[in-house]
Amino acid sequence: MLLDLGRAISLAFSILSLYALLNSAFFLPATRWEERLVASVARVGLAVCVCLISGFLFRFQSRPEVPLTRTLPVRLLIWTLVGAAAFFALGWYLDLYYVPQLWRNQP
User: Fold this and answer.
1) Average of per-residue pLDDT values in the chain
2) Nearest-CA neighbor of 78 among 102, 36, 48?
3) Domain total for the chain?
4) Which secondary structure element, helix H or strand E, spans residue 54, and what is its range?
5) Which residue has the higher pLDDT, 15 or 28?
6) Closest C-alpha among 70, 82, 66, 73 to residue 51
7) Nearest alpha carbon to residue 91 among 45, 32, 40
8) Residue 107: its pLDDT value, please?
9) Residue of 71, 60, 19, 55 lying closest to 40 (CA atoms)
């Protein structure tokens, strides 16, 4: 019972840490992409720590023993990091090469 409650709370903290990561990566107004990248690096470390601790709780007392990378919080972390990195690179590219061309063609 207590382990299940701990799993639910740790999963909620994992989701909140990933939300803070995505918020600092994409929704900081009036900042350049380099500043967003630096602000997100610390939050990546926080999210990794929280998700790994949560993954250990999900792995604890599971029969049969599952690898840490197959637990829900760690999979959520990996998919979020891959998706956020792809969208971050795409957004940076579009901002650098595509948006200036849009401003040039304004009436």
Assistant:
1) 92
2) 48
3) 1
4) helix 33-59
5) 15
6) 73
7) 32
8) 66
9) 19
